[in-house]
UniProtKB/TrEMBL annotation:
Residues 10-185 form the Transketolase-like pyrimidine-binding domain. SUPFAM superfamilies: Thiamin diphosphate-binding fold (THDP-binding), TK C-terminal domain-like. Heterotetramer of two alpha and two beta chains. Directly associated with ODBA in the E1 complex. Its cofactor is thiamine diphosphate. It comes from Deinococcus wulumuqiensis. The keyword Ribosomal protein does not apply. Keywords: Oxidoreductase. Its EC number is 1.2.4.4. One of its GO terms (biological process) is branched-chain amino acid catabolic process. This is 3-methyl-2-oxobutanoate dehydrogenase (2-methylpropanoyl-transferring).
Length: 330
């Protein structure tokens, strides 16, 4: 581990690399594998230098076979290891879907608690980097529906490092989505000492009293821009970063909405069966009497990710502001 005493300003992908290195060093049961994660260091260089540092027995490449990658991770986890498997893009997880749904998510319950599957699936997710149809999707809602799996998506370097370390130490499987458009764009202070961020706790990025603006992952900078634009017009916006989708922080969200009376939910996944629909239902069911307007939602469209028109597809600050104005004027 690093011995620096003071926090440093690093970007999100550097925070991921640090978390991986520190967990490999801390626990000999941790292994890291996936397509090109070894000598090349991954397509986004998140694992650069780790094979050289920890050896080919603990950081190694795999064939282009996601079903085998996930299946191997499940087997290793059940046998007492702490595998971290990288899927090169979230769009590619499909061949390993059954391994997650039928094995990783069920083993604790199926065995009556005799076995667990403490594995982490790391994967770059979302659009905004001109990746095209098969490199830009946001499929997190599929995994939120798998009872038994935790789902995490950070938006800051501090959270990326702390949540990834918490995921590795969890006794349950964790889907760890990394918003690729924030890999180098998101920068912030990160402690050099060992720390974790609790999975299931949201963060208030900005306090406000007129409207609750709630998101996670790659859209968070757009929420901040929208809040700035509304602040210039005298609107006080509370910005909440969920950070974790399963479990998610119901108490904090409800507390915020009960204070402001309005909520706008933002994500870049397609609108149909979007995870934020669960948040909207909970707000309506448990904070209905506090609402001054219907819960608003800004999301991607129900189409394959458009390579050419990604700026239209992604929920930018303008679409978010429009949804907030609609709620405020209701």
């Amino acid at each position: 581990m690093t011995t620096q005493a003071e926090p440093r300003t690093i970007n999100l992908i550097q925070a991921v690399t640090e978390a991986l290195a520190e967990e490999l060093e801390r626990d000999e049961r941790v292994v890291l594998f996936g397509e090109d994660v070894g000598a090349r260091g991954g397509v986004f260089m998140a694992t650069a230098g780790l094979q050289e540092r920890f050896g080919k027995g603990r950081v190694f490449d795999t064939p282009l076979a996601e079903g085998s990658i996930v299946g191997a991770a499940v087997g290793m986890a059940v046998r007492g290891m702490r595998p971290i498997a990288e899927i090169q893009f979230a769009d590619y997880i499909g061949p390993g879907f059954d391994q997650l749904l039928s094995q990783a998510a069920k083993i604790r319950y199926r065995s009556g608690g005799q076995f667990t599957a403490p594995l982490v699936i790391r994967t770059p997710s979302g659009g905004g980097v001109k990746g095209g149809h098969h490199h830009s999707q946001s499929p997190e809602a599929y995994y939120c529906h798998m009872a038994g799996i935790k789902v995490v998506m950070p938006s800051t370097p501090y959270d990326a490092k702390g949540l990834l370390k918490a995921a590795v130490r969890s006794d349950d499987p964790v889907m760890f989505f990394e918003p690729k458009r924030l890999y180098r764009a998101a920068k912030g202070e990160v402690p050099s000492h060992d720390y974790t961020v609790e999975i299931g706790k949201a963060a208030i990025r900005r306090e406000g009293s007129d409207l609750s603006l709630i998101g996670y992952g790659g859209v968070m900078p757009d929420l901040e821009k929208a809040a700035d634009a509304l602040a210039a017009e005298g609107v006080s916006v509370e910005v909440i970063d969920l950070r974790s989708l399963v479990p998610w922080d119901r108490p904090l969200v409800l507390q915020s909405v009960e204070k402001t009376g309005r909520a706008v939910l933002v994500s870049e996944a397609p609108r149909m069966a979007n995870f934020m629909g669960e948040v909207a239902y909970t707000i309506q069911n448990e904070a209905f009497d506090s609402l001054s307007a219907p819960v608003g939602q800004v999301a991607g469209f129900d189409t394959p990710y458009p390579y050419i028109q990604d700026k239209i597809y992604l929920p930018g600050a303008n679409r978010i502001v429009a949804a907030c104005v609609k709620a405020l004027n209701y």
